[in-house]
Amino acid sequence: MASPRNIGQNYKTLGGGGGGQYVLDYLKRMQAEKPCFFYAIQGVDDLSNANANNVNVNNVFWADAASKANYIYFGDAVRLDTSYRSKRYRLPLATFTGLNHHAQPVLFGCALLFNESQSSFIWLLQNWVRAMSGHHPVSITTDLDPLIKMAVEHVLPNVRHRFCSWSIFKETQEKLASVCQTKTKTKTNPAFEFEMEFKKCINEVETIEEFESCWLSLLDRCALTDNEWLQSLYNARHHWVHVYMRDTFFGDLSMAEASSPVNSFFDGFVNASTTIQSLIKQCDKAITSWHEKELKADLDTINITPVLKTPSPMEKQAANLYTRRIFMKFQGELVETLANPATKIDDSGTVAAYRVAKFGEEHKAHIVSINELEMKANCSCQMFEFSGIICRHILSVFRAKNVLTLPSQYILKRWTRDAKSGVGGVGDEIIPEFSSDSQESLTSRYNNLRQEAIKFVEEGAKSIYIYNVAMNALQEARKKVATAKKKKFDATQGSLEANGCNHEIHAGEDNQSKTC
After folding, report:
1. Do 173 and 113 contact (CB within 8 A), yes or no?
2. What positions does the domain SWIM-type occupy (predicted)?
3. DSSP states of 72-137 as a string?
């Protein structure tokens, strides 16, 4: 097992200043106010005995009800970001994030990692999975770290693990600074730039064979064939080079996004001078800010009619299904079919094969196989598998076959306007009733009320008249809730007095502590 990294002492925010006590008070207060709130402290099984010393020494993880709700809808592709410990931030912060239906970052949980080891990362992943009700994602993206890699293999053995290519680019810049910062003369290019060619080799190749050839050529031209760092990257290529990963959903809409830094959720909210106390406050501010951005994107999707660029019924269908951001991506692929004609090259019974290439770029052709009875197609580019958006090549085949609407199997619900409706397929509305007061039921009630409230706000803001109606209904609902709470309080109090019990009742949270 790899030796632990004690990073806590490197942070001036640790110890002193009441940082540990502030974090502990925050966690306890949040759980008291919102029973759905989850937190754990490594090495502390009985949280009632937690103290500031525990928090200052051990790792801490927490996730609120909103994080759990986000994971229900968007937990297919997850990013574990530990890059805040870098020189830029110098913070012991780690975050679990994903992408919502607008391709905006959403939070699935936070952690403070004051010391790192394989067992610590295993503990972190186990508690995160526990907070997410035991559900595993399809994929997880992390920094290139051997301790994290071993922990993922232990806790999430069936989840596809990818290393963040942005962090690999940054580390390559540092390890090969002399090569990256100078122009290297070669026989074919007198001003050959290693960094640019390195990124091209990773982001612009379309086949495994093309990558292998490009990689060997790059190392040969720069006389880096024996470089240990580049050799280690090559050995790990199945975990970070796109052509090896594109058969799995990661949620990136483009290679530019796949190569971008993962720590975008708290950008602008934390920096190297952020203390532990202010970190908690800034986390809450970031969550509020991104929630407001999501609401704005929801309203823009509802209120702004996209401009259609073709007479295709499929484009109109997609405009009504997808969120605005995702529709723009789909629309771009649909328009590209005009320059990417499909030519049938094989017809074996119910399965046919098409060759699709852009005019003038026949050497970059993609092959689409399609079951004509079931209207199921697969493309060699695997864009749908990787991003959940159907590619121009399959759309070109649909165009050739006069398929006018998008088959349901190519509409990924997580990218639609109805991504948060129920738990079923597109458009399914599932609002269950609960009779239990269990923790699981409480979480479900919170999530459902939150989603209904968001839709209420969206509809209520459409006009002054609807706004007034919505506000009146909200005030009436508030009165009814207050009346129901008082009735439950009175009924509970009478029952306890009849049994001769002393009691404490925290109204509004269904959280009762009784002593008889």
Report:
1. no
2. 366-402
3. HHHTTEEEEE-GGGSTTT---EEEEEEE-TTS-EEEEEEEE-SSB-HHHHHHHHHHHHHHTTT---
- CA distances to 86, 91, 275, 373, 441 from 264, in Å: 14, 15, 19, 44, 32
Rounded CA-CA distance 32/27 in Å is 9
Q: How far apart are CA 96 and CA 98, in angstroms?
A: 7
Token couple for 391: 């590619």
Dihedral over Cα of 262, 263, 266, 267: its sign: negative
**Spatial CA neighbour of 340 closest among 263, 397, 405:** 397
pLDDT digits (tens, 9 = 90+) for 238-262: 999 999 999 999 998 876 666 565 5
List pLDDT tens digits, range 459-487. Answer: 888 788 888 888 999 999 988 888 887 77
Helices (H), 260-370: 276-303, 313-321, 324-336
Distance CA 154, CA 146 (A): 12
On average, the pLDDT of the chain sits at: 82
Residue 441, burial from CB neighbour count under 10 angstroms (0-12, 13-18, 19+)? middle
Note the maximum CA span of the chain. 95
